[in-house]
Design goal:
about 270 residues; alpha/beta; two-stranded antiparallel sheet; 10 strands; about 40% helix
Length: about 270
């Protein structure tokens, strides 16, 4: 397993995401992912599959201490008191006493950020979360969060990041802060398949376009959390730890693919850099 090391913590660099997985699929695929070798599982209150994720974990018999488990608090639970209460509900659904990482799912301008972050830090003080962080925070929101929380408190910023979307400002900001960047939607909702640049690089290494796209993220020390409802795809996504991309490969992706093909852009999304 490859790890991203930040703030004295090792995060498995390749995780299994559960966004848009129905409960039955989430339970089945989490169990299969763990059996395949994944040790990082990502879910969220908004996904409405936390209970199934917890059942999938229990189905495998893998020790809870060997799994890096992430969930996210939804925007309507950002008030002090609401956030802690909703976290306890998430823990009950997941069947665990703690999560390894608890994230704010999106910025919420309707709730005072200091109040929300203090509540988030309180979940860590209470032992409900071993680490805390944010998701979908552009650099201005991240900067304000760091001022409130101080150094070495926020572990990661989870954002959409893939070969078709440059996230250089956010990536630079997390690196300066000593944080990790976690990439969701790392395969651009399947759009990496049949891309000529990725196919050429994949042919060179005996890998698929999706595997090259994931390896490109890992080469940057970015955490990637691909999801799939198909066992063979989850296995293929995990099979990226036995090769490296060289500087020529990395440059080809930067030259030919990096742009602004954002796949996730809800009405409440913040303005990006």
């Amino acid at each position: 397993m490859q790890y991203t090391r930040v703030n004295g913590t090792e995060i498995p660099s390749l995780g299994f995401g559960t966004f848009q997985l129905e409960p039955a699929d989430a339970r089945r695929m989490v169990a299969h992912a763990l059996s395949t070798g994944y040790r990082h599982i990502d879910t969220a209150q908004m996904y409405k599959n936390e209970e199934a994720v917890g059942q999938g974990i229990q189905d495998t018999g893998v020790n809870r201490s060997d799994i890096f488990l992430t969930t996210k608090v939804w925007m309507d639970q950002f008030r002090d008191g609401d956030l802690q209460r909703s976290t306890r509900e998430s823990l009950d659904k997941l069947g665990t006493d703690y999560v390894d990482l608890l994230l704010l799912h999106w910025p919420n301008p309707d709730v005072n950020l200091e109040e929300t972050l203090n509540a988030l830090m309180d979940t860590k003080r209470q032992g409900m979360a071993r680490h805390i962080g944010v998701s979908n925070f552009p650099t201005d929101w991240l900067s304000r969060s760091l001022e409130i929380c101080g150094e070495n408190e926020l572990l990661t910023n989870q954002v959409e990041y893939h070969v078709f979307l440059s996230q250089r400002p956010v990536l630079d900001a997390t690196e300066r802060a000593g944080m990790a960047l976690t990439a969701y939607c790392p395969l651009a909702r399947g759009k990496v398949i049949d891309d000529d640049t990725l196919k050429a690089i994949g042919d060179k290494h005996g890998k698929s376009e999706a595997q090259v796209a994931l390896r490109w993220l890992l080469e940057q020390d970015v955490v990637a959390i691909p999801k799939s409802a198909k066992e063979h795809r989850a296995e293929e996504n995990f099979d990226v730890l036995d090769f490296r991309l060289d500087s020529e490969d990395m440059q080809a992706i930067s030259d030919h693919l990096q742009g602004d093909a954002r796949q996730i852009s809800p009405s409440f999304a913040p303005d990006w850099d």
